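Slide 14.
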Amino acid sequence: LIPRTSCIVGFGRSHVDLGKFLAKQCVNVKGNQKEAFLKQCTYFCGAYDEQKSFENLSKHLGGLEGQRPANRLFFFSVPPAVFGTVCTNVKAAACAPNGWTRLLVEKPFGRDSRSFEELNSITSSCFTENQLFRIDHYMGKEVVLNLAALRFGNQLFESFWNREHIASVQIIFKEDLGTEGRGGYFDKSGIIRDIMQNHLMQVFLWLAMEPPKELERNCLQEEKGRLLKAIKTLSLDDCFLGQFSSNTWTVNGVNHHEAGYLDDKGVPRDSTTPTYAAVALNVNNDRWKGVPFLMHAGKGLDERKAEVRITFKRQVFNQLVSGDLNELVIRIQPEEAMYLKFMNKKPGWKQSIVEPAVLDMSYATAFPNSYVADGYERMFFNAFSGDGSLFVGSDELKEAWRIFTPLLDEIERKRPQPVVYPFGVSAPPGMNDFAARYNISLSQGWQEQLLLRGKSMQNLREVFEALDTDKDGTLNVSEIKTLARQFFDGREPTEKQAAQIFQRL
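Slide 15: predicted structure.
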């Protein structure tokens, strides 16, 4: 997709052994072109804060380019403290003499409105907005990319994409990992800065913005900005905060232990930094007024998952046939999919018996031979191509920080004690009550559902006897899958999911 003559040059403060460096950094590069790719990679050692280093870097790049016209794309994955200095030095000494120069900028784009304005003033004084490509790699994920096709490429969805038909929207991010030794870094940001203000906000924008005139950079950013301006700033009243603690459980007879957030050596013992947060966004416009958008994100939970859940309103005609609310689920990761939960008559003589059913489109089944690119692959390719439609504009960042900064300031000023939850739960205690304030019911994990059904030994025995179809007194993997379907929205569980339940039982 890019010219084979393209060169990749690493720049850093430390001298490296190129062979060892590439072996470590390119461990995930696959395919029969790997050796040819590695031959195009070099490394240059220099100081971030010295213009002379960038002058020498430019000479190194010029040697690779020869006398040919060449373009330069700088990927900024540098500490925020040196971002402005590097930007200034690239502009002063390392721009392409005979081609375009673009900056591919990694988050964080500041940590609040004030720091963003400082960074933005530096970048905008050195480069035009069309030269700046601010990455949010979630925008490169295939399912998020599909939101435009879902809404604007079909006749069905956009017609009921409004407050008359939608009761609520949840944007969910869950990790079954802790901070994995990164507690010192994470403690300076927290889950709101790390996940919500950027990744989940971008998903929200593509879900809720008005149809743009065209699917190009300026039109998209105009509609995103208009949507953000319709959202009021957040405060602690709109927020739920949690922090995971240690937990121990048994898998296949072996005790498994996960440390708590405060057990991380890089985290202060008295830290109140949230590892779980939920906020409700309310959009004051004709399309969405009264529809809550509930974002919730957390670490140390029961599973790894990112998805959108759109719950539809009950209509007057639903009095004729009782049943659950319809729900459209857009699974971003893992096992990318989109499925619709709806009511269906159960086959048989009685007309009145209906049960939930699922229209299920998984990417693995619908597109079995398609390559699902990593988010960063997509973002690099679009930056090479000059397509800014998937990147974050300065105006939308300004508005996003306007919404979140008052909440972040209030958290840092008041240091509220987050709700402590044991590692591995579906959601912290009290989160169900918080969601209920917005008439939202959270989907429960299989362990919570099983506990509710088995409040007594007799109830639990009845559950297992119903599943034991061959009546051999044990549950096999096939019977466990029957159980699992009840916990996975009626969808067929993967072998891995069924095995995890089997092990934990």
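Speaker note: The longest strand covers residues 166-174.
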